[in-house]
Amino acid sequence: MNTEFILKAAQAVNAAILTHEAEIESLDREIGDGDHFINIKRGSAVVIGLQDELAGLTPDVVLQRIGMKLLSTIGGASGPLIASFFIAMAKSVKEHGGETLTEIAVAFTAGVDAIKSRGKADIGEKTMLDVLIPVAGKFTALAGQGADFASLLQALKQEASLGMQSTKVMIASKGRAAQLGERVIGHIDPGAKSSQVMITAVCDLALSLKQVRSLI
Ligand code: ADP
Ligand code: MG
Predict the structure, then answer these.
(1) For the chain, which residues make up each domain, given as ranges?
(2) Neighbours of ion ligand 2 (CB under 5 A)
């Protein structure tokens, strides 16, 4: 995962979030307070604003700077959680590398674990973690099996989609939606939707590169 890829991924995520504005916004209006789209849009815009400053830095430093910037810019429950993802990923890349698919899977999992511990949440609570935990598990398993690049990325997209859909039937036990009890059944969690949109955008970008060499 080189710096050029991270910066391209930021552009792809920003574009994908804007494309899904109406959907993400209405989900948080239904079972939250309606600001989730604004929060993530602000976050991705500040990352885009950092591009010139980040170009030429090593990937771990880039991820760390993105995390710190997000921590000070995005509000809501999701802000510090997403920031902690990048900060933990930065630490993992610095300590264990971020070049092979296995190393990237380790870094992604470290990021997801940071969200779990910061938010004191786990799978099945109707949050972004219902997308992130299964994707991290699939990523680790397939990288470990030496799966080819394209089928790994397709599988991650599918896992993200299944995880996002899985939140529809859940009752929330974390975040604002937890106060609404059974009223949230039938609604997809907004953070799960935005996570699925972001993961899909990064996977599609990586797929467009055709070969793992362009990514690392
Ligand atoms: P807020 O809930 O403060 O308005 P956002 O609307 O930006 O913040 O984010 C809401 C999303 O954050 C939820 O849809 C859910 O996915 C996620 N979320 C909330 N609390 C937690 C938590 N403890 N752990 C993981 N994700 C959480
Ligand atoms: Mg909200």
Answers:
(1) 3-215
(2) 28, 32-33, 35-36
Looking at the CA of residue 31, tell me the nearest atom of ligand 1: 14
Model confidence at 212: pLDDT above 70: no
Beta carbon of 80 within 6 Å of any ligand 1 atom: no
Contacts of residue 100, Cβ cutoff 8 Å, sequence gap at least 6: 143, 216
Can you give the pTM of this predicted structure? 0.96
The domain at 3-215 falls in which architecture?
A: Alpha Horseshoe (1.25)
Minimal-distance CA residue to ligand 1 atom 12: 78
Two tokens at 31? 């079972």
